[in-house]
């Protein structure tokens, strides 16, 4: 299964990606996670991405596209992948299409997690993230349910940055929905509900896709 997950920040992409990647036996490739790992290790890529991430803006395409192109050559992605957080604009979607066309391995589907704006702000501002494994956690948790790591609030989950991220989504990322609808790849599900219900909606919708 070669799948892209798309939706506004706070739609639950990271959480669903984790379950769906395990379900289909493919790697979960999150560009945000890769950037955060690089920030933590203070690599040159992390330093390059930091100011954009902290202000809720997109890291420049040249940096992001090269990173994804490289990641897709890894052995674990040979039989499929789940991309989370990429593409984030139409130019990135075109680059992805070209990378996959070259390998003759086109996308099977693009799953859109749809959620009303008013739910997003509450979810993001109360979200905590694990410093160890990077998974999202609920605000009432004291430690990460997956690895027991310490929880923190992402710099870009603070109120002042959330508004900027939502603007960036509307202006730059939402147009890829139209792009993928035109390509006949778009599947939209309602992402409001319990985590397991949304996973079930996703796998039911994706079972109609021939991968
Ligand atoms: P995320 O964890 O997906 O919300 O991403 C966190 C931040 O990483 C974003 O706000 C961007 O600054 C950066 N980022 C992640 N994916 C991309 C991408 N595909 N293109 C540009 N910047 C990205």
UniProtKB/TrEMBL annotation:
Q: Which UniProt keywords apply?
A: Kinase, Nucleotide-binding, Transferase
Keyword set includes Kinase: yes
* Molecular function, one GO term: AMP kinase activity
> Is Kinase given among the entry's keywords?
yes
Looking up NCBIfam families in the UniProt record yields:
adk, PRK00279.1-2, PRK00279.1-3, PRK14527.1
**Name of the protein:** Unannotated protein
């Amino acid at each position: 299964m070669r799948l892209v997950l798309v939706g506004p920040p706070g739609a639950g992409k990271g959480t669903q990606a984790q379950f769906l990647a395990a379900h289909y036996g493919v790697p979960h490739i999150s560009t945000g996670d890769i950037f955060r790992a690089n920030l933590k290790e203070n690599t040159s890529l992390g330093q390059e991405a930091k100011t954009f991430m902290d202000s809720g803006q997109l890291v420049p395409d040249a940096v992001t596209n090269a990173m994804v192109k490289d990641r897709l050559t890894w052995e674990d992605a040979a039989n499929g992948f789940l991309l989370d957080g990429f593409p984030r604009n139409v130019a990135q979607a075109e680059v992805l299409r070209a990378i996959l066309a070259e390998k003759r391995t086109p996308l099977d589907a693009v799953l859109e997690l749809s959620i009303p704006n008013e739910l997003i702000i509450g979810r993001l501002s109360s979200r905590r993230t694990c410093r160890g494994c990077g998974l999202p956690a609920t605000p009432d948790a004291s430690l990460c349910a997956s690895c027991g790591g310490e929880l923190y609030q992402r710099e870009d989950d603070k109120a002042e940055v959330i508004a900027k991220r939502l603007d960036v989504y509307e202006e730059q990322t939402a147009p890829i929905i139209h792009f993928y609808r035109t390509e006949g790849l778009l599947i939209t599900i309602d992402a409001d509900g319990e985590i397991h219900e949304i996973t079930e909606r996703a796998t039911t919708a994706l079972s109609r896709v021939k991968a």
